[in-house]
Write a structure and sequence with these properties.
Length: about 90
């Protein structure tokens, strides 16, 4: 097994415990104010009262982990994680 496979397995176990899914869908979000745009990534919020298209901020209803990321990397990491998810990799 490769280091990437080991890392995926460890991440999948953690995500299963924190989000209820070993392959959650990811989104760009905000932690505090960020004039440069989203400055964090996190799993898509499952609370039906949180309409992310209206307010993409991270709130208490949002599943963990919410991970602070330098704004230039946010979209790349979201796309990378979601592509891995679609490919069936944990």
């Amino acid at each position: 097994m490769s280091r990437l496979d080991d890392a995926r397995r460890t991440a999948a176990e953690f995500l299963q415990r924190t989000t209820g899914s070993d392959r959650p869908e990811w989104r760009a979000t905000f932690l505090g104010d960020s004039p440069e745009g989203p400055n964090a990534i996190g799993p898509v919020c499952t609370d039906e009262d949180h309409i992310e298209s209206e307010d993409p901020s991270a709130f208490g209803c949002c599943p963990e982990p919410i991970i602070a990321v330098d704004p230039p990397l946010v979209e790349y990491l979201v796309e990378l994680l979601n592509a891995d998810r679609k490919a069936g990799s944990s």
